[in-house]
Q: What sequence folds into this?
């Protein structure tokens, strides 16, 4: 199995920045894609950012495009979500996820427990 642990969440001011980290452990050799999702109160879960292992390609939600950046550090088995220009609407529980099928819209089998991000107005 693969275990994912998020960190780096918390409180930020509007216009500020946060960097989320997701540390993967276990059978990480099988992973081909990772991503970040979020769920705000009263809203459905949405995909925020995805990264494919094969070519390091990325896909972002329109609402965060140009503000958020997903990246990975292979040596640390960690994926990051750099969040800049934060808005109140970014307030949500953020989830790290990973999958064994390469691509940007493929199913993700492994999920972290989520971490709160709160942006004050």
A:
């Amino acid at each position: 199995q693969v275990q994912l642990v998020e960190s780096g969440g918390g409180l930020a001011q509007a216009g500020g920045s946060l960097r989320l980290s997701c540390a993967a452990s276990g059978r990480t050799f099988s992973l081909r894609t990772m991503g970040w999702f979020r769920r705000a109160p009263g809203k459905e879960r949405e995909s925020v950012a995805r990264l494919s292992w094969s070519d390091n390609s990325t896909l972002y939600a329109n609402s965060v495009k140009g503000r958020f950046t997903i990246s990975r550090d292979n040596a640390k088995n960690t994926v990051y979500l750099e969040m800049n220009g934060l808005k109140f609407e970014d307030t949500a529980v953020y989830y790290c996820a990973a999958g064994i099928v390469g691509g940007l819209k493929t199913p993700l089998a492994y999920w972290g427990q989520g971490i709160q991000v709160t942006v004050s107005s």
Summary: The chain is about 0% helix and 55% strand. The mean pLDDT is 96. The longest strand covers residues 18-26.
